[in-house]
Fold Transcriptional regulator, LysR family.
Amino acid sequence: MELRILRYFITIVREGNISGAANVLHISQSTLSRQIQDLEAELDTTLFIRGSRQIKLTSDGQFLYARAGEMIQLADSTTHAINAKDIISGDLFIGAGENFTSALVAQIFYQIVTTYKEARVHLVSTTGDQVRAGVDKGTLDFGILTTEARLPEYGQLRFSQKDSWGLVMPANHELSGKEVLTPADLVNHRILLARQVDVEQTLLSWAGNYRDQIQVVGTYDMYYSMHVLVRNHVGLAFSFDKPDYHQTNSSLIFRPLSGMTRFSSKLIWKKGRSHSRLAQVFLTKISDKTNHDHY
C-alpha cells in the first residue's frame, strides 16, 4: 500500500468525487480510477459507493480513511524531522483532557512558537483512552493523563498539582447546599461519566456499599458536551474541579466527594521511540517548568 495512493484516496474523499480529485491532483480521471481499483483489489474490499455525482465511503472505506490520515501524518512528520537537520521545526502534537495542565502546555507552546518560527504546535482535547491510543500509534508525541496507574510502558513526567473528583451540577440543584458529598447523597441521582476506562471503577470503589445504587446513565467526551448535558438535567457529571465552577453567577457548580483520593496528572510518551528535535525541546522545557526529572 503506497503512501502516494493513500494520498489519492484521501483527496477523493475530501473532494467528494473522482473528477474533482483528479483536478486537484493534476492527473486524469481514468488514471485515478484505475489506481483506486487497484487499491480495492489489493485490500480485497470496496471502498466507495459510487453515485452519479457523489461517492460515499463504505464501512471499510471509513476505516481506511481514518487510518490513512494517521499514516500520512506520521510519514510527513518523520520525513520532516529527518530533513530538518539542526532546525527546530515541524509539528508537535499533545493530547490532553481539559484540566489545569492545558494552561501549562500553552505556556510552553508560547515559548516554542516565539522562538522557533518554523514550529507548529497542536493541543488535541480528547479522552484518556484516545490519548493512550494516539501515543501508541505515534500520532501524538505526548499525552497527558490524570491517573494513579503505573503505566510502565510509557516514559513519564508527573505534575505536582492534583485534581479533585466530585460532581458538577446546576447551581440550583438540591445537592448544592452540601459542602461535600457522601455515597448516600448520590442515591436516586443520575450520574454521567467521562468516557475513560478507569473512571467508573474509581466512582464505584469510592461508593462502597452504595455502589449498586449508583445510577450511571451516560458518558461524555469533552467538558463542553458535559456542560450541555448537565444544564439540561440529563445527569450530574462525575468530573474534576475547575476554576470556572467557582466564578460568581456560574450556572454550574462543583461539589467534592468526601474522602475521595486526589489524582495526579502525568505527561506520557512511548518508551523506546525517538523524539523529534521539536519534541525534545518541549520535553526539556516542561521538565524545567515543573522542576521534575522525567523517568
Q: What stands out?
A: The chain has a mean pLDDT of 89. The two ends are 37 Å apart (CA to CA). The CA atoms of residues 32 and 235 lie 50 Å apart. The longest strand covers residues 154-163.
